[in-house]
Structure formats: structure tokens, C-alpha cells
Amino acid sequence: MSTPLEDYALLADLHTGPLVSREGSVDWLCFPRFDSPAVFCSILGDEDNGRWKLSAVDGEVVSRRYIPDTFVLETEWRTPTGRMRVTDFLPPSDIHADLVRRVECLEGTVQVEHDLRIRFDYGRVTPWIRRVELNPPSAQSHAHDDAAHAPQSATEPHPVGTNQDLREQDGQGHLERSFKTRTDAGSYKNFRSRVRHAAKKATAGRDVQHGLLAVAGPDALLLTGPQLKPYLMDHDHKIVPSRGEKSHGPGADIRVLEGLRRGHRGTFDLSAGERMDWVLTWCHSYDQLPVPAQPGLAQEATEEFWRDWASDVVCDGEYDQAVSRSLLVLRALTHSETGGIVAAPTASFPRISVENATGITGTRGCGMPR
């Protein structure tokens, strides 16, 4: 891919960390953990190594930001006929993993375009995909509640930071900066229960009837939201006639599909004030289908969770915002159950040369979108 690493934004749920390009493409995602094989891997190859691009037809990005003190990413697009905002995030969870993508038309009319290519095991495995009917949430509520109220671990993960002041001066001793984390109220005593609370809130009231299920071995991804349609494409990027869902499911003729690229796409019209939501949920292929996150409640729970955590960090000095954001990134890279910190969300990308620099690692550009 030609997108520089510094143009990617990091999302986080305390278990994994997908990267979203400025053009709205999720080019890197390991589901459900940082060390799981990637299901979107086009950052290392091309689009057919897996991606999920959500963009405005004939549009351009005019702004991109995190909602303050969170990892909820907002991207605003402008088209000749209107404006729209895309909101991307992962609700904190230790039950299953959800990637939520919300689109709202802010002005005029817009067309939203999707290109979804799921490739398990770092782009090597193209899954079988079929449309499924989902059980009502009430049928799964008991199992979900049991998981949400699982006993806490005897050992809570250590919070990022310490309970003592850390001070630093410049060479002349003129500048003093400090930060500390508050522990007087026992803020981190029940950290994992706060994660479970956010996860439970994110799925409350979700009522979806149909979804797109992609299966490869023990892993599965469930997409819910307005329907995307399957397509086949040859190496010249020309659409090839297909038999619809049969060309992507267990009954597909592998000899016919050999060498062809498969994916799902869709184009949707929105007018000012209208919104559409999509949720991609990971689960084991041999388990009961999960309850996907409810987008509105999930966003509320996610913002509340990150702001609650950020409120326990007190920074003073000229670089207080940079210090606070750096601590948020460290928290995002810290597994909620084990407390282990990953060196980078991009696992072990090789160092690559760039102009005016000796090299970059996978962490560059992951703190704040450009």
C-alpha cells in the first residue's frame, strides 16, 4: 500500500488495535487480539490482502480527529452535493470484539461506498461467506450476562503511570512539567469490571435479524447493517459475472474462482440528518452467533469509558496535552486482562526508509490522526 504509516489512526478496545487510513480504509486488523492473525492486511500488500474501505463517492476528507480523551475517530467528508461524518471505534470488551462504523449525512445528500474484503491469516485465506438469520437478543441474553458478570481476576492489570509525581526540567531549569495518576479513590481497583460494564452497555437492546457471516476454520466474522452485495473481480479489476452468494459460500466452485478476487460492496444514499451503521463482530465459528454491539449505545459507552480513564490522569505544564495523549496510547496498547503492553499495534513490521528520516516503526503516527 502507498499510504504512509503516519497517516493511519489507531483504534482500540484494550485487546487489539486496527489502523484506519485517511481515506477510510481499515488496512490492518488482528481479531480478536493484538497477537491474532490479521483479517485485514492490505497495509503489507494490496487491497486483496484484506481491507474494509468506507468512503464518500466523489468525496474528499476535510478533517479528521479523535473525540477528546477517547479513541473514537471522526472523519468528515465533503462531496459536490453534501457533507458526511464517519465515526469509527471499538467498544472496550473482554467478551468478543466489535468494529463499529457509523455514517451520518450532515448536509445535502451523499453516497456512501463500501468495499469489504475479508482475508483471514494475513491475507492467505479467503473465507466462505453466507447470509444468516440471527437469533433475537433475548435468546442469547443469559449466556451474554453470564460472561459479562464473570468473576474478576485475582490480579488486576497495573495502570499506565504511577502513583507518584514525576518531574522534569529543561537544561536551564526553567521549565517544570509533572504528571501523576490519582489512586486515592481506588480508580483502578475494579478496572476489569469497568471494561465488562462498558461491554454490556454496548450490546443492550441490539435487535438485528440478518447478517453476513464469514468463516475460515475456527474464526468467524459477522457483519450487520445495511446489506452489502458480493462481487468477483479479475486481475484487470473488471467485474466478472457471478452466481451471487453461491460464488462466496461453501458451494462455490473453487476451479472457477481460482485467480479471481472476491469481496462485498455497496453504495447507499443518505440525506441530511440520516444515518447508517455497520458492525463487524469476531467470534469462534463453532460458537453461538454473538450479539453485535448496538452502535449508539456502544459509542456512548466507549466515550464514557475512555474519558473516565483519562480523568484519572493529571498533567501540568506546557506539554500536558501531549503527555495525556501519550498515556492514552499506552493504555490502548495495554491488554485489559493481562496488563501486558505491546510494542506496536502493527506487530513486527520491518523498519522502512523515508525521506529525511532514518526509519520508522509501526508505532509512528498512531497517536493522533493527521
General description of the model:
Residues 137-188, 251-257 and 351-370 have low confidence and may be disordered. The protein has helices at residues 120-123, 137-148, 191-203, 254-257, 295-310, 320-332; strands at 9-10, 19-20, 25-30, 38-40, 51-56, 60-66, 73-79, 82-89, 97-117, 128-133, 166-169, 176-181, 210-216, 219-224, 229-233, 239-240, 261-271, 275-284, 313-316, 352-354, 357-360. The strands form three sheets. It has a 16-stranded antiparallel β-sheet that branches. Strands 11-12-19 form a three-stranded antiparallel β-sheet, with helices on one face. A two-stranded antiparallel sheet has the order 20-21. The longest helix has 16 residues, at 295-310. It has six helices and 21 strands. The radius of gyration is 21 Å and the shape is globular. A hairpin with a 5-residue loop joins strand 15 (229-233) and strand 16. With 370 residues, it is of the alpha+beta class. Helix 3 (191-203) runs antiparallel to helix 5.
